[in-house]
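Record type: monomer structure entry
Structure origin: computed from sequence
Chain ID: A
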Amino acid sequence: MVISPLSLRRLSYALIVLVFISAMLLVWTALQHQESTLAIRPVNQGASVPDGFSIWHHLDANGIRFKSITPQDDVLLIKFDSSAQSAAAKAVLDRTLPHGYIIAQQEDNSQPAAWLSLLRDTSHRFG
């Protein structure tokens, strides 16, 4: 069986298109599944972080869903499925928690998110 050059060329083009579509699907999936984390820490060193139950109550009362609430050292970490949920939670907690706490978005350490963030931040340098 002899494969003609035209068939070989079509096969190589189809393979290139398949690889490109796979790469785009991988990037899209990474963008869709980005977790978001809020970190709550006291302004004054030595002060305690709010308890997870009160945070859960404030978020639940406002219909905001979260994945987990975890104390870590002197910080309370709240994980969300999306940055929209995280932003809504930040607005609620800014309103409901007493003054004396810093509520900030924590950077995601996942490798795909870090690469995509790097590409987004440096894309204006091309061209």
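Annotation 1: The mean pLDDT is 81.
Annotation 2: The two ends are 47 Å apart (CA to CA).
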